[in-house]
Amino acid sequence: MRATYELWHEVLSAEFFGADHALRSTVLYVDDEIERQLAELYGIETGLALAVADELNWSDPERSLFSRVQRECAQWVNGGTQGPPPSLPVLALSVLAATRMASADGMLRSNFYGRWIQVFGEQLSGYRANKLEKAFEDVAEMWEQLDNWLEDTGGLFGTSTVSTEESRWKIGYPISQALVRGSDRHVLTRFFATTRLRPHNRTEVSGRELLRRLRVWTAGRDRHLSPRLMEELADAADTGETLISSLLKRLADDWDGTLHEPEHGHRRRALGLRLMVTDRGRRLDWLAEAVEATPETEVCLPGGRTFTLRKEYGDVYGGLESLRPSPQQLAYGVRLEGEALVLEWVPQEVVLLRMHPYLGEWVSTEYFEPGEQHWILAADSAVDEVRSMVNALGGRTVRETSAPVMGWKLFKGVRAVNGGAFASTLDRGGAHAYVLEPQLRQRAELSGGLRIAPEYRAGSGVAGHYLRGGGPDLLLPASESPDGRVEVVLDGYTEKLRTDPRIPFPLRLVPLDEGEHQVGTAQSSQVFTLYDGLHDRLPPGTGMLGYACGGSAQRELSEVGDSDAAIRGAYAPDSIRLPRTELVRSDVLEAVLIDHRGSTCRVKQQSVPAWMVSRLPEEARGSCLEVEVPEGYVWLVYRTAARWSVRALAAAMDIPDPAPSHDDYAWAHAVMSAAERSHAPVWLGYVAAAEAIAGKRGA
């Protein structure tokens, strides 16, 4: 090969497949500007197109146009495929042609071959043009060879983003590399973070779902993505695997959770902030999920305050309590940066919230779950449309209240229980209809239902146990067939259903016997069990589940025999009266129990018992310990590093009216410490009694 071609090969190898690309997704993006920069940086006087053109075989019509390059590739394979394949300059030139695709010079934006012929300086018609177009089948094979080489080397030279689609098989390869510029890589890692994608896409979000989220994320706002990528985003089909959805999936699968910041060494983790509505809709907080390897870190506002974050219960960070969401932050966004972590909230007019499984509070989420209850936080500018949308869902009346931030409203109790109304609401669309869009799934899943118990046997493949007549709903993947039908398999019987993948299919409508059932598609299915009711006695197998213990307990619950050493559940006879206990976080700084007569009982600082330290691994201990509550005490007031809190220890109807003495100052002080932490009427009565005592003392 000529020296100029080999020089371009060395330059492209170093720039796109060097050591700094190991285990990171690599995109062979070359446009006119990058070609010029590389030529100047490495002192190359001959352009990329001329270097490749010199290797073309025009003299022998019996041999292929790229026969010289193909011969070098064959020798590269026989020699053990050391380093990138010799076809890199050819592939880079095809990407350069793809970046020039635009509706100009009498050519349509979709005309790749016209630009491919043009980069060689040839006429758009005639023998040489036809030869170049026909030879591109060989170039497509070179792209497949590069993709396979990156896969075989296990990410040592980078992970492949080479993609295509059925409708444009050959030209899809270079176009996939022309869609994402270096600046797009940074923006897309921000998108992955703010949409709270897990590193390496551990939850397996599909390419179509990523495409849907990206369209929502870019709707009405300039996210500074390149025009070429935005055009592909707008033109991509909503069904089937498209070039952009395939590329997004590859980038997401390779994303390690860091921002694409070469200047920072790609070391900063990125997370999307969540909004959390607490105190029954009266308070708004920021919530950040904790990074597993970073239990403590610092972030700060640009040129402003610094916040120390510490991992707490529920795998979330504590430390942002003093940063209350403001109308300005909701409208324009907020960004907190540190040496190791970047937290960001991207502004949006409508925010969907769902109950957090561990915190018990309403937290912003990415997609709607049909059948489940949601809250919607809407700016005043979007209230009319949101009100119309949720009313069209039918079912229970949605409650509309003032939000805990000025200029916003809160819609409570938003559910989709009527499939027809839900589908018509989505089909009608609107600027904010995306908040009602369920996640696009790749496999069948179960949701809802009257669940008696989850399945505790690890790896058993059983989704859970349900009451007969209250079976779960079946969430199906989108159909790829022309008739829109999905082939559903239930206990070995197959039937094609015309269903909307956004709407769950209610399995309770199918008469099923008590016992185990398997349902789904040929590609993915789940097992569940149905029972007629709970047992009047201890069910068979009770006592057979426990934590196997051979010096220290295992982390996973499993079946254990009678003679096996294990930590099992205990049975207390009715004659034994167990003490009243309450869970208290082990990191509280101060905790006080309060009764209605004016007495207080200080809770001693809790430490992890020795038996627990010796037998349970640290991850299995949890962050809470039990404390005994003496008879008559009805409130727990406690202080963490961030704030005071109060918790009722009985139902409101069972809490007596306060009756303290006029000199119960310690009682009054404890109540006043958490006076504003609850707006329950029964607690406000205690606050009023405490204020009366405090007022007398002040007098």
Helix- and strand-based class?
A: alpha+beta
Tell me the fraction of residues in β-strands, as a range: 15-25%
Residue-averaged pLDDT:
86
Q: Number of helical runs?
A: 20
Oligomer: single chain
- Low-pLDDT ranges: none
The major beta sheet can be summarized as: 7 strands, antiparallel
Can you put this structure into words, describing what you see?
- It is a single chain.
- The protein is built from 20 helices and 33 strands.
- The protein is of the alpha+beta class.
- Strands 5-4-12-11-13-15-14 form a seven-stranded antiparallel sheet, with helices on one face. Strands 17-18-24-23-20-21 form a six-stranded mixed sheet, with no helix packed on it.
- The model has no long low-confidence stretch (mean pLDDT 86).
- Helix content is 30%, strand content 21%.
- Helix 5 (88-99) crosses helix 6.
Structure summary:
With 699 residues, the chain is α+β, with helices and mostly antiparallel strands. It has 20 helices and 33 strands.
Task: Please render the helix and strand layout as text.
Layout (H helix, E strand, L loop, with lengths): L2 H14 L8 E2 L5 H11 L5 H6 L13 H12 L9 H12 L12 H8 L7 H8 L1 H17 L6 E2 L8 H10 L3 H13 L12 H12 L8 H9 L7 H12 L14 E4 L1 E5 L4 E5 L8 E5 L5 E7 L3 E3 L8 H6 L1 E4 L3 E5 L4 E6 L6 E3 L9 E6 L3 H10 L6 E4 L5 E7 L4 H10 L16 E3 L3 E3 L8 E6 L5 E3 L10 E5 L2 E5 L7 E2 L8 E6 L4 E7 L13 E4 L9 E2 L6 E3 L12 E5 L4 E6 L4 E3 L7 H6 L2 H4 L2 E5 L4 E7 L4 E5 L16 H9 L7 H18 L1
Parallel strand pairs: 1-2, 3-10, 18-24
Antiparallel strand pairs: 4-5, 4-12, 6-7, 7-8, 9-10, 11-12, 11-13, 13-15, 14-15, 16-19, 17-18, 19-22, 20-21, 20-23, 23-24, 25-26, 25-27, 28-31, 29-30, 29-32, 32-33
Helix pairs in contact: 5-6, 5-8, 5-9, 8-9, 11-13, 19-20
